């Protein structure tokens, strides 16, 4: 008869006995099952696209600018009357055609350089370098607004509302400067703070709506642009608010002298004022905030993958509000710079002069890095300053410069296209994308 244990099972079917009494180690506990790979969702597609654009190399950026200038040169040559004339006898005298092309393209870009960097034809060193100071003056609001857009990009937000934030900052700054008669040492710093606060509140409103309702920031900021534009337009048409007393024109009062930025190097350089120094300080602040502070680390984490950031205990909604507050404040800095420095004789609802939308281009060109945006703003300031000389001396419309700017954005947003044109090696993301595509085709087959 087979021996049975107390459990009613034969001894050979019982589990082995182990433990301190038997002198054998207990069997290790089974390892916990790994968390499923899809427990943390992948980042939204918009975050992935923005990350791919912002991670492009410096070489790709420079080549995108060169390619845009080449295409712009082709457009200049095609629209030049002399080039069109010599094309009629191209096969008989091709040298005339190529000479006309060279004269048109070189003359245009040489005029662009003279109007933006250095005018060797002028008399006196101060007059010769005045184009450079004009470039810096035009670049100041572009850099400030571009920093606001770039900061939002780093958090995964598309801030299309820099224009509205600028307009609200202009209105807030103007109301403050017109309402109080203060010494310059107090009036100017307070006006700067009021402008920054106005833009921050308008940007923070979009961030709050995004965080509370989940509405897309692109829709919110575009709609707030319209609200800001019509609000400022109404204010400059209303006596007692911003409209110039005794005038029926939609234009504001002039900025008081006590609230104007003084010229940085004297009256012979009227476009360059101390607002440019404030913009440099803002660039330093944004660099420190994003790259060195703990708040910036949390913002960048949300920009990389908001789902992973939320799983790590970061308040994504709070980061959205903070990011739009900072972005609006920087755009407000650009608007304040217009009222206190560039347009002190009075303004209307178009005081932003397209800077709010150009800031998107500047941020993309600068890869949403603080100093990259600074350099991109200088480039666009040079294009704007030089376009007037190019039009005056060569008869080339300013629209050509706008085309070049648009082409820069196009090529910046399509790094694979630039690498293909210049036969550059593909980066790892492109290689992995191709590998996934091939694997998907094999799976389907």
Structure keywords:
mainly alpha; 445 residues; 0% strand
Task: Write structural notes for this entry.
The termini are far apart. The chain folds into 2 domains: 49-116 and 396-421, no CATH class; 139-394, ABC transporter involved in vitamin B12 uptake, BtuC (Orthogonal Bundle). With 445 residues, the protein is mainly alpha-helical. The longest helix has 30 residues, at 184-213. The chain is flat. The protein contains 18 helices and no strands. Mean pLDDT is 86; it is low at 19-23. The chain crosses the membrane at residues 53-78, 138-157, 186-206, 218-236, 271-290, 320-340, 370-388, 400-424. It is found in: Cell membrane. Keywords: Cell membrane, Membrane, Transmembrane, Transmembrane helix. It comes from Microbacterium ulmi.
CATH architecture of the largest domain: Orthogonal Bundle
H/E element order: HHHHHHHHHHHHHHHHHH
The CATH class assignment of the largest domain is Mainly Alpha
Compute the number of structural domains.
2
Average pLDDT reading: 86
What's the overall geometry? flat
Helix content estimate: 55-70%
DSSP summary: helix tally: 18
Over all CA atoms, what is the radius of gyration? 30 Å
Main sheet summary: none
**Strand share of the residues?**
under 5%
**Alpha-beta classification:** mainly alpha
> Termini distance?
63 Å
Give unreliable regions as ranges: 19-23
Number of extended strands: 0
CATH topology of the largest domain: ABC transporter involved in vitamin B12 uptake, BtuC
